Prior knowledge:
By secondary structure, the protein is an alpha+beta fold. A hairpin with a 6-residue loop joins β7 (about 475-480) and β8 (about 490-495).
Amino acid sequence: MNFKSLWLGIGLAILAASIFWVVRTDSSQQISYNQHIRPIINAKCITCHGGVKQSGGLSFLFREDALDTAESGQPAIIPGDAQHSEMFQRIIHHDPEYRMPLEAPPLTKEEINLIADWIDQGAQWEDHWAYIPPQKDIIPPDVSSDYEVRNEIDRFIFKKLQDNELTPAPQAEKEVLARRLYLDLTGLPPTPKEVQDFIDDNSPRAYETLVDRLLASLHFGERWAAMWLDLARYADTKGYEKDLDRSIWKYRDWVINAFNEDMPFDQFTVEQLAGDLLPNPTMDQLVATAFHRNTMANDEGGTDNEEFRVASVVERVGTTFEVWQGTTMACVQCHSHPYDPIRHEEFYEFMAFFNNTEDRDIYNEQPKLFTYEPEDAKDLASTLQWVTTHLQEQDRDLVPEEGFLYEKKEALLYDLGYRKVEAEEFHASSKLIELLAPDQDVVWQVQDSSWIMFENVDLSQVEAISFRCATAISGGFIDVRLDSLNGEKIGQTEITNTGQWDQWKEFKTSLPTVSGKHTIYYQFRKNKDLTQHLFHLDWIYYHERAPLKEKYSTTFNTKLVQLNSYKPITTPIMRDRPAEKSRETRIFERGNWMAPGQLVKADVPEMLGEIPKGEPTNRLGMARWLVSRDNPLTARVAVNRFWEQLFGLGIIETMEEFGSQGNPPSHVQLLDWLAVQFMDQHHWSVKALLKQIVMSAAYQQSSTATPEKIEKAPRNRLISRGPRVRLSAEQVRDQVLSVSGLINLDLYGPSIKPPRPDESTNGWGSWVAEEGEAQYRRSLYIFTKRTSPHPMLTTFDGTARNVCTSRRIRTNTPLQALTLLNDSTFYTAAKALALQMDATHPTDVSQCLQAGYERVMLRTPDAEKIQALELLYQDALHRYQQKTMVHPVAVGSHDSTRLKAFILVANALLNLDEFVTKN
Length: 919
C-alpha cells in the first residue's frame, strides 16, 4: 500500500470537510442546473472537460460521463454527497496544483456554494432550454392598463418594459409607418401618392388594409427571398479558384414564388431538402432541391473530385443545422461539440443523409433538371404534339408516355436519328450505363484509362461517331471497342489541342459495318506522359447511314430541326444513388476524410429527438423530423429570423447559435409563444406570422429614442421604441432606383450584370454590363460571382455567399458615403431624380426642391430644410455658371447649369442618413 497517497487522501478529505463547513451557507434554495450551474461550468470548466478535451477522463457535457469514474478512480460527482465528490474537493483545494480550475482564479464562494448545494440536491441535469420543445400552455402576461395593447405580442414586450421601468414609445407617424411597412414587406419604398392615400384613409382598418395589400404584393417574395438566399448561399458561380458560371437562377425564382404563394414553412423545408424523394415529384419540387446544390465546386485541374465531394457533403451538414436548428456544427466534424451535448459520431450519422447523393464535384454538375421558359415550353409542347401526330403507326411508341417535356423530346429525337448523347445524360440515359474511371466512380473530365459503356447498341446503320471535346493539350485518344475493353477495336480518333479547356471542337471516327446489337466501350487513353486529366467531353453523336427520320417528309424533318432547336435551362438538383450503389459513411478521425474510421448509419442527434415513426431513414425522413412538432428548434429559429428582419435584432441575437454559447433570449416566453403560434395556429404560414408581428403596437412604435431608453437599452433589445436600422445593400440600391423612377420591376429570369468598375473584376475578365432597362432590375437579380461580388453590395455588407450567412454584421465606413456619391448607377439615379425636380416648375426653384425632397423622404420639408437645399442649389448653380466646378459627366440633351445644380442636390438627398435608414 502507498501510505503517502493514503495520508494525502485522508488529509484532503479532512481539509475538504473543514473548508466545506467554512464556505457553506443556507442550502434551502432549489438549485437549477440551467440557471445556476451551467453558466459556471461553461465559463470555468468546459474548456478542459467538454467536447474537445476530457482532461482526467472527465466531461461535463453529458450527465452519464460526469457521474462516471474518472482517471483518478473516483467519480467526480456523487449525487447527494458533495463532501465526498472529487469535483467539490478540487474546487476548494488550497493547493493551486490540485485546485480547479487549473491555472485560473478560483471559484467564488457563491459559485462553490451553488455547486455544493446542487450536488447535495442530487446533481440533477437539465437540457438547455432551446433543446426542450416549446410548450403550448404559455399565457401572455397581464400588463398595466396604461399600455395600448393591440395583440398578445404586446403583452410580452410591455411586461418586460414594465419590469425594467420603461414605457413604450408612442405610435409612429403614418408616413413613417407606411415607409416602414413597404420596406419590411416588399423591400421597396412607397410613392408619395401611396403615402398620402394611407394618411387620408381614416378608417379603423386602414393600417391592416395596407398590411394585407403588401403581403399580397408580388414584390413580397423578392424581399423575403433576399433573406433566404443568404442562408442558401445562392450564387451564380461555383467558387474556388476557377469560379466558373453556374446556371441555378431557377432556384432563386422558386424561392421568390414560394414566399409569394405563402408556401407553408414545413413544406418549404421538405421540398428544399428532399423534394426529389417525394412521390412523383414535380419540376418545381426538383428545382427546390437546388438548395444544397449551391455548395461550391472546384473545377481546377488536378484536384481530387472525391475530396471536394466530401467537402460539399460536410458543408451541407453545417448549413442544414445553421439554417433550421440555429446550431453551429462545424466543430463537431473533428470532435464532440465543445459546449453542447452533440457527440463527434453524431455529426457523421447526420452526414449519412447527404452522403448518398449523385453529385460528385464534376464539371458538368450532374444531376441536372432541364426545363424551359413558359413560352418556349408552350411552343415545344405544340411542336412535339405535331410530330407525334404525324408519326407512322409503327413509330408511335417512340414518344415516352411518362417523363418531363425535355425527356420526351430527347428520346424521340434520339430514336429518329438525332443520336447525340450529352455528357449531362451519361448517368441517366437508358442506352448508356456510365462514364467510368478506374475507381468505378463517374467522371466527366476524362482521365487516362477511363471508359464509357453502352449496352445493346445497334450500330448496323451507324457509319461514324463524333465526339465534341475541349483540351489544352494533345496526345489523348478514344478507342471504340466491341463487347469488352479488350474487344475488337472498330474505331479510333486522336483528340488534339483545341486551344482552351472550354474551347470545343468535333472529332470524328469512321466505323466499319457492324451487324446486330453490341455493348460498346469507349476507352480513353494517352500515348505519352501526359497529366492525368486528358480532355473534356461534351457529347457523343452517332451518324447513321439511313436514320429513321429520312423516311419522313421534308416538312416533318423541318419540325424535327425546330424541335431540336429548343435549348433548355439547366439547374443542378439533388438525387440519391440507387440502393445497390449506396455509399458507406464512416467517422473521419479528427475530421480527416482520408482517415475513415467506424461505420455509422444515418440518424439525428439524440438530444434533438428522433426521426418520426413511419418515416424513412433518408433525407425525406430527416426533413420531416426538422418540421415535426417535437423538434425543439426549427420553429424558434424561423420565428427569430423573421423577427430580426423586422426589428433589426433577433429575440436571440446570435441567430446561428441557439446553444449554450449563444446570447440569451431577450424575451424567451415570447419566442416560445410565437413558435407555437407559427406551428399550431398559423400552420407554418409566413405571411400570417409576419402580419401578427407588424400588427402589434410594439412594431408600430416611433423609433425616437429618449436619453433614459438609450441608457437602459442602447441597442433596443427590450423593444421600448420602433426599429431604426440601416437598409440592406440590396434595399439601398433598390430604393435609389425606385425614387429616381429608373427601377425595372420585372420578376424572375436570369441574373443581370449592372455596371461596375472595370478594376473590380480581380482580373478574371470583363464584366459585360447590361444596357437599357435591364441594368435597373432589383438587386436580388444581380449576378453573384463568388470571387468578386458586385462592389456596391459588398460595400454595404453584402456577402459573397461562399457559406451560409445567418446575419449580416452591419458596418459604417467612408466607402459607403463615397459609393452613394460616385457609383455610376447612383449618379444616373440622381440625374433621373433631378429631371423630375427640374420638370416640377419652370421658374420656382423652391417648388422643385420640395418635390425632390418629398419624393426621397416621403414627407414635406420644413422651411429650414428648404433653405439649406436652396443654399446648396444656388452655390452649385453659381459655380457651374462661373465654370469653377466641372460636372463629372455629360447630362445629355438637357445640358444646363440649372439641371446640373439639381443633380448635385439630388445626389445630396440620396446621401442622407435618413434615406438609407429604416425608421
